[in-house]
Amino acid sequence: MYIVFDTETIGLPKRWNAPITDTDNWPRLVQLAWIIYDENGFEKERNNCIIKPEGFIIPEETIKIHRITNERAHSEGLDLKHVLEIFTQDLKENSYLVAHNISFDESIVGCEFFRKGIDNNLYNIKSIDTKELTVDFCKVEGSRGYKWPTLTELHNKLFNKGFDDAHDALVDVEALAKCFFELKKLGHFGFHNSFQQVDYNSLINIKPCEGEIIYNNENFVNLGVHSYYSVFEASGSAEDYCKMAKSYNHKAIGLSDFGSLSGAFNFYQKCKDASIKPIFGADLFLNDNIGKMEERKFEGENFLVKIFVKDYEGFVNLNRLLFLSFDQGYYFRGRITTEWLLEHHKGLFVTTTGLKSKINHFLSLGQESLAEEYLVKLYEIFKENLIADIQFNKEYDQKIYNDFIIRMADKYNLRLIVTNNVLYARNEDAQLKDILFAIGEKKSVQEIAYDKNRHYFYAKSEDIFNFNKDFGFNYPDWLIDRAIKETEKIAGECNFKFDTDTDKYPKYEPTQDVVDYFNTSDTKEIIYKLSHAKLKQRLKQAQDRGVMKVTKEVYKQYEDRLNYELEVISDKGYLDYFLVLWELIRFCNDKNIAVGPGRGCFVPGSKVKMPDGFSAPIETIEIGDCVLDAYGDIRVVLNTMCYNINEEIVELEFEDGRKINCTKDHEILTKNRGWVKAIDINEEDDVSEI
């Protein structure tokens, strides 16, 4: 039932995301070991095959690791084709393929299949990667949260000891199998024999739609579209998605960027121009441990929850959730809790979301009852606005998740939809995702792990039916047809749109002390009296410092200009807006809160990052120059300020030798705490590139 396997090679690939057909990239196989176990963990068969070298030499640096010399390989080695044929037969006869860092081992063996012209059956068996699935279990700290555990770290976590002779494929297989079956016994995987698959004949609420199944693209709405505002995750633009939607006769598009509504208005404008209905949403990060640990880094794994806006109240509530995510939940990214979500549920749809949801977290641990309990918790508040969401991909546990969601949708009469996680517009744009991920990880494209899922493009209904078959789900067509049609119904109930035809300005309501001081409550009178009083004050200060001589003619010149500016402000309807800002500044001054331009300053000699990758001294920057901001965006310099300061200077020194000299109040962007004043930066802060 289970094949646990491992490989030893002559080295590492140049590019981790290269296709297995790139024979120059993937190193040659030196040892392939695998053991077959039954469902209870009893060994049925084992194979430990050293490969006879054909056209390659095992380098000394790898011999030091796995201790398989060229002499040993030639004397003990087996013919590669013969070994692959035996392995292929076992792949056909078993259900699961288990490895630690399986993408590497699959690529090594897959490339050897290609070299020998043998059919590759690696992707016809469900794969289980213990490296990926035990991150939250092992909780090994890395630079950006928990990292992938090594096999030794996993073994230590489970048995409080390592194992001997690591980097021998067979020894590693034995150790991995021991870990895997221990995890299975503990319930940390969803591979339970008792797992219930869907019995379509027993479904009560989920039935075929009336009439013949018609593969009509117009019935499908993509409710999982991500734009380039999902930074380092997606590359598609609103304009590209609208073009795809028009070509498929789609009536609506659902935008759900990760942790952000920043692209919403641009999305609205592009959809409006294309006569497509925009559906607004977001994939928010969720963590119910926020504020419960002494340090944020111990709060554990984040999950995703997909939310869509039904109406104006829903748009307000989604914005409130986003505010809370950054104000109270921020750690590397904005995060919310389930309680915040339930508190701000009105006007929102929420979906079961997919493999990165909290529901699937429980399923992956074999805790189906807790998964249902959490779903019910959402259902009790959201009622008919809780949407059951299934997807199709190459992940082994997607079928387990889908089957559970279908059963829950039938049990609680939830509306069932099908979505595709859209990250780019066209199928040929898949490499853009790799590039973005590489930029986010500050690595080359060749160094990042290759994502085996290459179907994150803007799909049509025909694609959804094909995904169902191609990825081996094989649900009946009527079920897919029903889920597709439900997306159109959901879109029909989402009716928020931006009001761009009405001018909306803040209304200034003067406090009693302001009314008493100016002897009026009229906004125009207040700002005119205030402005002229301030003009007289400023001109007197200038004259006292000897900067200028204020004659009647000079005063009249300034007075006329002030009256002209005030009339412009009045005509544009901004008088109240200026007074609201004045009140805010007045409040800050009363509370001794610093008010002024900028966010601190750098001293001469400080380096500014330029778009060409080089740095320039800050004093050489001129108006009109282009520079990179803290987020890596190109900005045009609109103004520069140079002034003498009498403040304490802070020197910050970084691991790479860089030194920054700036004022104490200069704010620096960190990945873990957002903007932090220089005086408050500590060694634990992960500072963004400066």
Task: Please summarize what this structure is.
This protein is of the alpha/beta class. Helices cover 38% and strands 15% of the residues. The strands form seven sheets. Strands 8, 9, 10, 11, 12, 13 and 14 form a seven-stranded mixed beta sheet that branches.
Description of the molecule:
The protein is an alpha/beta fold and 690 residues long. It folds into four domains: 2-186, Nucleotidyltransferase, domain 5 (2-Layer Sandwich); 200-492, TIM Barrel; 512-590, no CATH class; 607-680, no CATH class. The protein is 38% helix and 15% strand. It is built from 22 helices and 22 strands. The relative contact order is 0.07.
Topology:
Layout: E1 2-9, E2 29-37, E3 43-50, H1 60-66, H2 70-76, H3 80-93, E4 96-99, H4 102-116, E5 126-129, H5 130-133, H6 135-138, E6 141-142, E7 145-146, H7 151-159, H8 169-186, H9 238-247, E8 252-258, H10 264-273, E9 277-286, E10 303-309, H11 312-327, E11 335-336, H12 338-343, E12 348-351, H13 358-364, H14 368-382, E13 386-390, H15 398-411, E14 415-418, H16 430-441, H17 461-470, H18 477-492, H19 512-518, H20 523-544, H21 552-571, H22 575-590, E15 607-609, E16 615-617, E17 626-628, E18 634-636, E19 649-653, E20 659-663, E21 667-670, E22 674-677
Parallel strand pairs: 1-4, 4-5, 8-9, 9-11, 12-13, 13-14
Antiparallel strand pairs: 1-2, 2-3, 6-7, 9-10, 10-12, 15-16, 17-18, 19-20, 21-22
Helix pairs in contact: 7-8, 13-14, 17-18, 20-21
Number of domains: 4
Mind telling me which CATH architecture of the largest domain this is?
Alpha-Beta Barrel
Q: Summarize the main sheet.
A: 7 strands, mixed
Please compute the radius of gyration using only Cα atoms: 31 Å
- Could you tell me the strand content as a percent range? 15-25%
The beta-strand count equals: 22
Bulk shape: globular
* Whole-number mean pLDDT: 88
Q: Helical element count?
A: 22
Classification by helices and strands = alpha/beta
Q: What multimeric state do the chains show? A: single chain
Q: Tell me, what is the CATH class of the largest domain?
A: Alpha Beta
Fourth-level CATH superfamily of the largest domain = Metal-dependent hydrolases
CATH topology of the largest domain: TIM Barrel
